[in-house]
Specification:
By secondary structure, the chain is an alpha/beta fold. It is built from five helices and nine strands, in the order H-E-E-H-H-E-H-E-E-E-E-H-E-E.
């Protein structure tokens, strides 16, 4: 995916020294490149009879909602605490630097749903794994996980080993 990679900018020492941040905003500025990224994210799952795309706050909303629109299916946001206005299911999980919580509306998904989880990047895999568990708490089935960027050296894929993982760009 060299064509997409050309639109991802490296920002050294952000948000702290030693971190090489992968900035996707140049890709978002280019409609044709953004469209290509969405098509490539969903391509392996086109015959899976998906009923919903789920995306994590915040960049997962961008790629997930565009993918859901392209497929003509639901988009389900996974949010930080106290952002959703209705009854929620929550899941707290540990990160390498602390803990976090995700929430989903209790009626967002059910036992007949087949879900593709989409986010811009997988690093350690903690947020993606927690997202999958939260979706499964509602009875839905995770068909796969798709990421624009995968930071291979952080081994996030290991936390998602029971799922079909598709990443477009590997660093």
């Amino acid at each position: 995916m060299e064509e997409l990679d050309a639109y991802i900018r490296n920002i050294p020492d952000f948000p702290e020294p030693g971190i090489q941040f992968k900035d996707i905003t140049p890709l978002l500025k280019e409609p044709k490149i953004l469209e290509l990224s969405i098509e490539e994210l969903i391509y392996p799952f086109l015959n899976e009879k998906l009923t919903a795309i789920a995306g994590m706050e915040a960049r997962g909303f961008i790629f997930g909602s565009l993918a859901a629109q392209k497929l003509g299916i639901s988009f389900v946001p996974l949010r930080k605490p106290n952002k959703l206005p209705y009854n929620v299911e929550s899941l707290s999980y540990d990160l390498e630097y602390g803990s976090a919580t995700l929430e989903i509306h209790v009626d967002a998904l059910g036992k007949n749903d087949r879900v593709l989880l989409i986010d811009d990047l997988i690093a350690t895999g903690g947020t993606a794994a927690a997202s999958c568990r939260l979706i499964e708490k509602l009875g839905a089935e995770i068909i796969g996980c798709a990421f624009l960027v995968e930071l291979d050296f952080l081994n996030g894929r290991k936390k998602l080993s029971k799922y079909n993982i598709h990443s477009l760009i590997h660093y």
